[in-house]
Amino acid sequence: MTGLLPYGRQSVTDDDVAAVVAALRSDWLTTGPQVTAFEADLAGWTGGAGVAAVSNGTAALHVAYAAAGVGPGDEVIVPPMTFVATASSAVALGAQVVFADVEPETFTLDPAAVSAATTGRTRVVAAVDYAGHPADYDALRAAGGDTLLLADAAHSIGARYRGRPVGSLADLTTFSFFPTKNLTTAEGGAVAALDGELLTRARRFRNIGLVRERDEQRWPDEGGWHQEVHEFGLNYRLPDVLCALGRSQLRRLDDFLARRARLVARYDAALADLPGVLTPGRRAWAEPAWHLYPIRVLDGRRREVYDRMRAAGIGVQVNYIPAHWHPAFADLGYRRGSCPVAEAFYAEQLSLPLFPDLSDADQDRVVDALAAALRGAPARPAAA
């Protein structure tokens, strides 16, 4: 093995390459048939919820919040144990983010914390399926009342909650197709919506806000070229070339999920009796997609173990810095200590390598390096 074994990596085959080449040789590089076909394929994984493909996962969040009508004066409840975009994309629309703590087993949004944080100004409750484990959506609906529920499912396409697929659980669901995720379009994302009006708003926002339907235009008789902008949007389109890659990847998503589940089972068995670490928790009602394998390193040793494993050529990662700790939020008055469960988890969290092409031998190497790091043994670098 040469170089650093990454914590995540895309799996690209000759079929994926052929799909991209075919799109490049077609008449459509963007806004063409591969986009609508990819959206239809994705709907097969969302329980039939309509889908709008977008340029990346952050764009998906921005589009979803815009479709929900988020704006100045609104509050959006977000867990801190997430990539910062779950919160910052709501701020970009003028909303105030309210951070609510997470549950201690799954580190997904705590319904009790949501209930305490919900006010008359709450527009959206945004749950995050941390590591690919679905949040408790039924409890979150009850906690938020009539508030729109958003699922940030960047980690969890293909996961199921009480037998129901992610994508069908919240009013709006966002996906990410970054290379480390469970399938990739290089960059890319999507928004799923249960309500047709929300889906229309999402599709328009990702396409500059353009209205091309004559029966909805104010001046429909202007000419065949005519299009109007009724509400401002942005160009968040995902091109046909990348949608073709996504369609090819989707054909292997079942295999990706099965391999991740097998690797998780191997980690669980190998680490069950290893002192100084805790393996990920899960609920009986969940079928996680396992984007991450997040262990907890106890006794204040996370930094030491991180450094030793990196020196040994194992690309462990920390996911994530609590969102409210970022200077951009600190400068707005958010303070450490406000979400103690998430903050305590962050102090111990370490993601081990997990991706479909990770071999059993390389996984065994990860386990050996972790055990050595916990013993305090000198790090052994990867072979040149």
TrEMBL record:
A Gene Ontology molecular function term of the record: pyridoxal phosphate binding
Modification type N6-(pyridoxal phosphate)lysine: residues: K181
A Pfam family of this chain: DegT_DnrJ_EryC1
Listed InterPro entries: DegT/StrS_aminotransferase, PyrdxlP-dep_Trfase, PyrdxlP-dep_Trfase_major, PyrdxlP-dep_Trfase_small
Key word ATP-binding present: no
Signal sequence, start to end: none
UniProt entry keywords in alphabetical sequence: Pyridoxal phosphate
GO BP field: polysaccharide biosynthetic process
Cofactor: pyridoxal 5'-phosphate
Active site: K181 (proton acceptor)
Similarity annotation: Belongs to the DegT/DnrJ/EryC1 family.
Protein name, entry field: Perosamine synthetase
